[in-house]
Design brief:
This protein is mainly α. The protein contains eight helices and no strands. The radius of gyration is 18 Å and the shape is globular. The two termini are 29 Å apart. Bound molecules: zinc ion (2 copies). One zinc ion binds at residues 93, 97, 146, 150, 166, 170.
Length: 203
């Protein structure tokens, strides 16, 4: 849904948000605030948690694993779903991979705080903060990786292969939804398989 089709009060909110989400300022502020909120949540968790090493290590591994699925699910079903502004912003990214389209910078950090509050309903506060902080760290790594993949040409063969996984997605939007890792594309069968005699870079 575009801002112009919304009821007037929502339009007053949607228009400035739409403008913000395509600005260079917002992209930079997002990369910084995503990193900051992950550090704040992890440090707060460790500081107040009085944690033991084993459950803390398990929490970190669970957070990293959860992040890989969140990255995949958000890209496949939110950004490539019928989701109005989320889909529209991501479509602009597909048309212009070097553009500034990104979520409003305050949205992911607020979501991570809400996630920490949700986890705290089931976990001790320290572990809840650590779990949300590790997911936030994954999100921060995703954001900066995505910018670097499009802005940088890697020389290292392994890094080229890693960046190529997402670049293929730009030619084949129904495949390779993972950005930092292709784990869930392998598990859920959406990993791109080259057709014989077909070069994805020339699609
Ligand atoms: Zn991209
Ligand atoms: Zn996409």
């Amino acid at each position: 849904m575009s801002a112009s089709t919304l009821p007037a009060p929502l339009e007053w909110i949607a228009r400035p948000l739409a403008r913000l989400s395509t600005s260079h300022f917002n992209l930079r502020a997002g990369l910084i605030s995503d990193c900051l909120i992950s550090v704040v949540l992890i440090v707060a968790g460790v500081w107040y948690g009085n944690m033991r090493l084993l459950p803390a290590s398990v929490t970190v591994l669970c957070g990293l694993f959860a992040f890989t699925f969140i990255e995949y699910a958000a890209h496949r079903w939110l950004f490539h779903g019928n989701t109005g502004p989320f889909e529209a912003g991501h479509t602009r990214h597909h048309l212009d991979p070097l553009g500034y389209d990104a979520l409003p910078f305050f949205m992911p950090p607020l979501s991570m705080c809400a996630l920490a509050a949700l986890f705290a309903l089931a976990l001790p506060a320290g572990y809840a903060l650590l779990l949300a902080g590790v997911i936030a760290a994954g999100y921060s790594a995703y954001g900066s990786s995505h910018v670097v993949i499009h802005a940088h040409r890697f020389k290292n063969p392994q890094m080229r292969r890693w960046a190529g996984f997402h670049n293929i997605h730009h030619y084949h939007p129904d495949a390779n939804f993972g950005v930092t890792t292709g784990l869930w594309d392998v598990i859920l069968g959406t990993r791109y398989h080259r057709q014989p005699g077909h070069n994805p870079g020339k699609a």
